[in-house]
Each structure stands twice: as structure tokens, then as C-alpha cells.
Amino acid sequence: MTLFAPAIAMAQGLLVVTDANQSVRLPRPNVGPVPRPEPGAYAIKELDVRARIVDQVAQVQVSQTFVNTGSTQLEAAFVFPLPYDGAIDRMTLLVDGKEHAAKLLDAAEARRLYEEIVRKNRDPALLEWYGTGMFKTTVFPIPAGATRKVTLAYSQLCRRDHQATDWLFPLSTAKYTAAPVETLRIEAAIESTGDIKNVYSPTQAIQITRPDSHHANASYTATNQVPTEDFRLFYDVDAQTLGTTVLSYRPEADEEGYFLLLASPALPSDGSAPQAKTVVFVADRSGSMSGEKIEQAKGALRFVLNNLAEGDLFNIIAYDSTVESFRPELQRYSPETRQAALAFVDRLYSGGSTNIDAALRTALGQLTDSARPSYVIFLTDGLPTEGEQNESRIVAAAKQANAVRARLFAFGVGYDVNSRLLDRLTEANFGQSQYVRPNENIEAHVSKLYSRIGSPVMTDVEIQFALDASGPENQSAVNRVYPRDVHDLFAGEPLVLVGRYRTPGAAKVTVRGSVGGKPQTFEYSAQLTERSADQTYAFVEKLWAVRRVGEILDEIDLKGKNDELVKELVELSTRHGILTPYTAFLADERTNLHDVAQNATEARGRLDLLERESGVSGFSQRRAKLMLKNAAQAPAAAAATFADADADRQITVETVCNVGNQSFFRRGSRWVASTLTAEAEKNAIRVVQFSREYFDLAAQHGRAISQCLAFDEPVLMDVAGQCYLIEPPK
User: Fold this and answer.
1) 121-159: string of b/e by CB count within 10 Å (b at 16+)?
2) Burial track 685-709 (b if 16+ CB lie within 10 A, e otherwise)
3) Cα atoms found within 13 Å of the Cα of residue 280, Cβ hemisphere only
4) Domains of the chain: which residue ranges?
5) According to CATH, what is the number of the domain 278-454?
6) Which of 9, 165, 188, 219 is the most exposed place for a label (fewest CB within 10 A)?
7) Are 210 and 492 in contact (CB under 8 A)?
């Protein structure tokens, strides 16, 4: 009998104890006080994943250092659940430099082993990988207190759908750990004979570098964390100037589907000059900016000045009670104007009040050429206290002064800003707000933004979907698309666009814009699926829901409460487990999930918090709202978090969790799927854990259901429209 070791933290696989006389359950992440160490316990110190992906084939090497923190030696083996849809042709495994043979078990043999271990230990956790194959090693001893470095290598054929190659690494086994993983690193080097365009992860926020058009590097680093889901990476190859891929997901044929569009322009070729642009930096130098803040703002100005390109136009507007310009009009960037501008920055000092209205009108009034992309970087740490102070009139004046559709990027520094004013300004001027905490570095935030927008490749972008088959006239093939407006595409920065569609089938995507000042049009084919056979692209639905929640909050914030929007906010929060400061009451076990009217009333009252436009509360709410609107990843399969409306901190809720594409709420001693109706719960079919029916359910519906069966407590789950109550044996 092969048994799992307690308190394991083996992220790339599972360590198992091979003592037939010992019955050991999988560990669970610690919540609350750390328990006393068990006789046999493990902790992971480092996990390092390196992958080289060449034209759909991934060569993967994983190194892990773990320590036996128990008091006894354990005889252990190592198993590795196969990435689904990944054809692995070989595996080698080293333990402290000594090679161990790894045997491939097919799905049937692995299923028998899974069931055997689950029944023996009365532990459903292993059901998460039920139905996949596995590699299994020979036994090796682990002395008490000893460390072991385990290295494994394998080759994997990645799945490809249209142009998109999908690499999956089974990282989620790490959630069965007694302590957080100290250091986690994933490096994926992509090579292709064609031009690589989009590189995107729906699960982790990755860092991307591109040495040239045929190579891309994606990296992810985390410390002291418990990974809760697998690592997933998409990339595509396209010979056109603009690379575009569309993924679609439609779980129910009688409901609208979801789509994700990824678009990345080609990297500028060697020697080609980037598109000329205009950048105006509007810097707050009022008295509240004194000390470290003004020095950081000056550092941000220097970064922008040192990274402008020949052909760019620029200026600096510094404001307090009065407004001062570096030059009366825009300057052409050159070594001479750069040095003069740096000297102007050095002379800036803080003092006086805050005349936001005059500063913005001065900056926007200098922009007269609509043929080139223009960006205004606006920085403030306070409320308007000089000149025009009415929020609506400031926004209207800025919008009127912006005759060239300049993109306004606003940075609110500290808790004293009028956050709603900044959001209204950027919404009216094609840009985006960002919020910098008092203890965060202004220069780092501005530098990161400018590094992203510094190389516009395609400007004035328009994206249209059209069905190949004829449909109703004047009816768009897609709806509720986010972001609502796409203005520019930047080198090395993929556009992540999500939306809904009514009619499935073949479609054409048309992207229009200006490249190098010349209009260009690109057309691509897409397939909007009629019905998804599995949950391969289920993350698209989750990502759309997150962004839709952000858009709803933004509309309520800027335009006022609307009963329909409040109701939709509650329904989306409930269905997808997306908590906000205004729907956090859903996590209360006393809240009736089925009482939509009462829950909407509760949310409507809590939305009064949006009346706080400044202070810690105003800052925290707007920052949280923008994180939802701009989300690039779907919610992680873990306890839900939301922003505290009264303090700048995140609150973790352990009564809500996401598993696969389902969300569950704890109600009493049970976990209840968010999609279940009151009537469905009454007609639930009872299934006892570890029974034949239990395993048959997992085998019939695959990993999407088996992940939900891995609950260690009673669970009411929705399986193809039927409610099942899964209970432990008595």
C-alpha cells in the first residue's frame, strides 16, 4: 500500500510514504496558529521550474529542496500527476544527484492507485487528479531532519488551438503543504521559427521579456506562498504585423458565450525608429509634496526625460497655486532640450496650494496635433484648493481643452487625493488612474507606466467582430466588451479583451488603426464555439465576470446607483465568488444566497460608501475598483479576498472559495455551490464519500468535478444541472 506522507509541500508532485502499516492523510494549509510538528512532516524550501518551449515541444526541468521536519525516518516514493492534454515521453528523477527510475502509469492504473490511497486514508484530496495518468518513482529513505533535493526532467507536447500554444504545469499540488513555499520560481523560454506575438498567463501575473521576435521569456516568482492552482501559459505565432488570437467558452448552449481576444503588435525591427509621440508631464509641487515625495516625483520626471526618443515632443508643467511651464510650447526632444529640462526639474521645490484645473488646461491646451499619439502624465497628492474646485467643472474644462484625444494618465499619491475626481478625469480623457500608497515609491509607479506606453505601435485602434453567417442587421456579434475602448497598442504589451457573444460560429475580427502614422487594417478568422465540451477555457468566463464587476462599480461610482446594476453586481458576486466591499456580506454564513432582492437591498446600502471621494476609504475603494476593471487573471482557487472599504488592506474570507469553474459558499457545516437553486438543493442526490458511486461520479465527469469532490467536508455541488450532496461516511 502506498500512503501519502503528512504535511507535504511537493509542488511539482506528491511525496508518498510506503509503509503499509501507516495510514497518512494529505496535509492541509495551516490556518490560524501553527500546529505542533507531527512525527513525520515535510516543508519545502525552494521550487525552481525551468522550461524551454520550442515550436510546441516543452523540455521541463524541476528542482525542489525539501526537509523532513519530523522525528522519524520515512520510506517514501514520489508521484507526479500528468498535465492534462500533455503527452510526456520521458522522465528522469534525481535525488541528491542519484538517478531513480520513473514508471509511467496510464490513466486506468493511476485511477486504481488513486482510489486505493483515498479509501485507505479516508482522504478525498487526491481526487483532484483522478482520471489523469502519473509517473511514480522507486522508494528512497528520508532521515529525520534531512534535506533532499529532487530534480526531474521531462518532455511534453503542448496543446495547440488555432495559433495558441498552451503549456500547463501542475503546480496546485503545493496547496497540500504544512507551510508556505519559501521560494517559487518559474522560467519559461519560448523559441519559435515564426514571429511570437502574444504571451499571456490566465493564472499568474508573469513578467515578459522579448530579446527578439523569435524568442520570449516568461517568469513568475513568489515567496512564502501556498500555490493553489496550476501554472498556465499561452503564446501564439503570427507572421502579420499584429498577432491576434481568440479563445471562446460557452458552457450552456442556450446562454451567451464568452470570448477572450489577445492582440500584440510586432516588435520594432532593428534600426527602425519608434513612432513619434508627445508627452506632457504635469507635476504637483504644492506644499503637501514636500520632502521625499517631491524628490520621488523629480526622479520620475528624470526617468521620462531620459527615455524619450528623437522625434518626440514634450513639456513639463509644474503647479501649486500657480502654473509654471518648462517652455511656453512643446519642445522637440534633443540632447540640448533634455539637459535644459533636467535642469528645470532640479530647480523644482514644493510650496503653495493645488490648482489642478489651471494645470490641466495649460497642459492639454498645448496639444494641437491629432495625427500623433499624445500622453499626459498627471501627478497629484491632494484636493483642488486653488482656482476652480468644483469636480464637475474641472472635468468638463479638461475634456473641452483636450482637442486631440490625448490619453490622460493620473497618479493619485497618498490618501488625501480626490480619487473620484481622478477617475472622472481619466474616464473623460481616454486614460486610466493609478493610486500610490503613502509608503510606495512614486518614481517606480511612473517608470512602470512609461515603460509600458513609451513605444506605441498602433494608435486609434478599433476592433470589430462580424459573423460569417448572415444575421440581424446592425446587430453586433459581440457585446459587453471590456475594456470598453482600446486606444493604443504598445510594443511587448498584449491587449487582453473579453466579452460575450450571442451567436456561435465562424467570425471575422477586424482591427483598424494607425501604424507609423498610416491607416492599416488587419483581418483574422475566429471560431465562437457552440458548446464547450470541457473547462479548458473556463477561465475566460471568470475573467469576464471580474471585469464586469469592476465596470459596474465604476458606472455606479461615476453616474450614481441603478437598481439593475446593483442586482447584476450581487448576482455576479454570488455566482463567481467575487467579493467587493459592497457584497462582502455574502460571505456571512447567515446570508441566504437565494434571496436576491434582500441581498440587492443590502448591497445598495453599502454602496453609499462610494460617496467617500478622499481619505483612506476613497483611496482604497478606487484602487480596488481599478484592479477589478483591469484584471488580467481569473480569480485564484483559494479563499476569497476583498478590499476593506474603511482601511487600505485586503481581507481574506475563508467561507468562500473557487474550485475549477465553480464557486462555493460555506453554509453551516456544508459547502454549497453558488449556482444551485433552492429547489435543486431540495432534490439533491446523496452520495457517500469513498463509495463506488463516489468514484463513478468522478470518472464520469472528469477533473472538473473531481476537483470539487476533493472537499474534506460535506458539499452540495452542481453536476450537469443535478444537485449532489457529498457526505463523509458515518
Assistant:
1) bebbbbbbbbbbbbbbbeebebeeeeebebbbbbebebb
2) eebebbeeebbebbeebebbbbbbb
3) 27
4) 3-156+167-192, 242-271+457-528, 278-454, 559-675
5) 3.40.50.410
6) 219
7) yes
Asked if domains 242-271+457-528 and 278-454 share a fold, the reply is no
For residues 279 and 375, what is the distance between their CA atoms, to the nearest angstrom? 5
Q: Please name which of 102, 96, 166 lies closest in space to residue 134, comparing C-alpha atoms.
A: 102
- The confidence score (pLDDT) of residue 662 equals 87
Confidence of residue 419 (pLDDT cuts 50, 70, 90): very high
**Cell, residue 495:** 491587449
CATH of domain 242-271+457-528: 2.60.40.1230
Q: Is the pTM of this model over 0.85?
A: yes
C-alpha cell at position 486: 482600446
Other Cβ atoms within 10 Å of 91 Cβ, number: 19
| Residue 108 per-residue DSSP state | H
Give the confidence band of 21 by pLDDT, cuts at 50, 70, 90: low
How many angstroms separate the CA atoms of 418 and 227, rounded?
A: 37
Read off the pLDDT of residues 502-517 as tens digits, 9 standing for 90 and up. 999 999 999 999 887 8
Segment 594-624, tens digit of pLDDT? 999 999 999 999 999 999 999 999 999 999 9
The DSSP bridge partners found for residue 54 are 57, 191
Block residue for cell numbers 510586432: 266
Cell of 465: 467582430
- Which residues are within 8 A (CB) of 717 and not within 5 positions of it... i.e. 6 or more apart? 662, 664, 673, 705, 708, 709, 723, 724, 726
